[in-house]
Amino acid sequence: MEHRISHKDMDELLKKLEDDYVEAVTGNESTTVEEFVHEFLMDSWEYNDRNIENIKAVMSRYSKGDIYKHTFSGAFNEMVDYVQDKLTSLDQEKEYPLIHQPYGASVMISFVDGLVIQYYTGCYDVEQLRNMTPQIKQIILNALKTEPTTPQ
């Protein structure tokens, strides 16, 4: 794990959200990248729907400065690391080059988080997100197939 933070004195609600996230990723028994992305999406829609009030509370505490930036970003980065490790382990044939870049999982998660924000703002409901999942999965898989570029 690249990003490890101290969980001592961490906001209890943030710790619970992080633990739930890690449990969902490590408990995802998918054997392919494609299966993992599908399950990750479906789990994301359901989890965020069930825990919207807790997520809002953590975001509010963070915006008020009750949760330090380092702690909040550290927890998030740690969660991304779990996804990165899982995706890398599933892509032994390296069919998805972006997965093997340090930011591969972050790209996927940012896409999902963008849709979750749209859910929070009322653009989509969970049923719409479920119905969109096959297309969203395909978009993410196509993005993960992107070849890395070398800096100019």
Please give a quick description of this structure.
It is built from six helices and no strands. The protein is an all-alpha fold.
The N- and C-terminal alpha carbons lie at a distance of: 29 Å
Mean pLDDT: 86
Shape: globular
- Structural class designation: mainly alpha
How helical, in percent, are the residues? 55-70%
Q: Main β-sheet, in a few words? A: none
Continuous helix count: 6
| Unreliable stretches | 3-9
Radius of gyration: 16 Å
Secondary structure: number of strands: 0
- Number of separate domains: 1
Query: What is the ordering of alpha helices and beta strands?
Result: HHHHHH
In percent, how much strand structure appears in the residues?
under 5%
Could you walk me through the main structural features you see in this protein, from its secondary elements to its overall organization?
The chain is globular, with a radius of gyration of 16 Å. The protein has 152 residues and is mainly alpha-helical. It starts with 11 loop residues before the first helix and ends in an 8-residue tail after the last helix. The chain has helices at 12-27, 33-50, 52-63, 69-90, 104-120, 126-144. It has one domain (12-144).
